[in-house]
Amino acid sequence: MGGEIRVGRIAGIDIKLHWSLLVIFALITWSLATGGFSGVQSSGTTAEWVAALIASVLFFGALLAHEIGHALVARRKGLEIQDITLWVFGGVSRLKGEAHTAADEFRIAVVGPVVSFGAAAIFAGLAFVLGALGAPALAVAVPTWLALINVVLAVFNMLPAFPLDGGRVLRAWLWKRRGDRTAATRTAAAVGRAFGFVLIGVGVFWFMTGNTINGLWFVVLGWFLFGAARAEESQSQLSRALHDVRVRHVMTPQPAVLPASMGVTDYIDHAMASRFTSFPVVDPTGRVVGLVTMRRVRAAMARGEEGSTLAHVALPIEQVPVLSPEDSATSLLEKLQGAPDGRALVFDRGALVGIVCPTDLQRMLELTTLRSDTGGRRT
User: For 72-88, what is each residue's pLDDT tens digit?
Assistant: First the structure.
């Protein structure tokens, strides 16, 4: 996603914050402190600002709990959790791979709204107790707002608009009924795009009738939903096209390697004389220790590190996705999700035999699409 800050780990899962979260956090706090609490006459006091700050923190805590619910159930179903990122539209649990069955898909999707409804019930109960004890109106208003916003979050996520949770529940149902995940994804994505268009239309109407802020939010949210549904559908089609393809069919074999002692300027000269810009980096014994790309070299030069060696610039081998030639192309896609440089190295019995770059995937996708169009089969 980019622009993320890692803030810690929960249950072994990396938790990250996107910079856009700061914007929405400030907006929520400001709106609550200046009259957003129901039943409280706002006067801009310090107490109201403190209450607004507490409410905002607890809201994002509940949002994090929503995503952790997804992640923990996914882990129980055998999926690897890459991380959880909170950002302007809520939260994203990044999983490596997809659910193995429609039932698993349903359970992973539905647990998030269940957690949100649970949080709403807890906050509603707290508001009731505080009210019964005669607590100040502001103290009651905070859990009351949190209960309401968590209900809104749960209901919104249960809309059958892929890739929202409700859209994933819809896909699970279609998958179970048809026995075809790709076809189910295609239908659910179409519904998601339709919802996106509806939100955009509502936003434009509100914008034209003077409700500028709400109109803008609906347009942005609708556009995001439309784009996300289309991206998920494309990913599903890609996985289907590559289902019988092996890494050896995708990779560029016998990639040229560069010594870890080579300088950044020498890399530039070497890359200019080659059609490649990504190279495995080896130590004096020939052992692969990393991967250097043009993006990393450019970043090093921007930091004034033109005199650095590739050992300093390269992505360490521990962070590079590694596969074997007989691994499936779909497993390659899974490993490339969130990979720092979008590239993978291929080893056979410990020896480097290939590299996979985005252009390799694009080439194979085009070829498999042609094969599908002609009805051909791999021999």
Answer: 999 998 887 878 888 76
Residues with Cβ within 8 Å of residue 189, at least 6 apart in sequence? 162, 163, 229, 230, 232, 233, 236
Is the bond preceding 113 in cis, omega lying within 30 degrees of 0?
no
Chain segment 237-278, per-residue pLDDT in tens: 666 766 678 999 989 999 999 999 999 989 998 988 888 899
66 assigned to a ligand binding site? yes
Q: What is the pTM of this model?
A: 0.69
pLDDT 10s digits, 125-182: 999 999 999 998 889 999 999 999 999 989 988 988 888 899 999 999 999 999 888 8
Cis status, amide bond into 316, omega within 30 of 0: no
Assign residue 134 a region: left if phi > 0, alpha if psi is -120 to 50, beta otherwise?
left
Q: Is 70 annotated as a binding residue?
A: yes
**Can you name the residues that pair with 246 across neighbouring β-strands?**
328
Catalytic residue flag (residue 67): yes
On the 0-12 / 13-18 / 19+ scale of CB atoms within 10 A, 163 is: buried
Superfamily of domain 247-374: CBS-domain (3.10.580.10)
Task: Retrieve residue 279's tokens.
Answer: 């190279």
Q: Residue 106 CA to chain centroid, in angstroms?
A: 19
Kindly name the residue from 67, 232, 233, 334 that is annotated as catalytic: 67
Q: How confident is the model at residue 2 (pLDDT cuts 50, 70, 90)?
A: low
SS3 content of the chain, % helix, strand, coil (to 5): 60, 15, 25
Higher pLDDT among residues 312 and 237, named by residue: 312
List the domain boundaries for the chain.
4-158, 181-241, 247-374
Residue 18 marked ligand-binding: no
Tokens of 27: 């907006």
Which residues does residue 86 pair with via DSSP β-bridges, in sequence order? 17, 91
Q: How many whole angstroms separate alpha carbon 219 and alpha carbon 222? A: 5
Q: Are 167 and 160 in contact (CB under 8 A)?
A: yes
- The DSSP symbol for 318 reads G
| Residue 131 amino acid letter | G
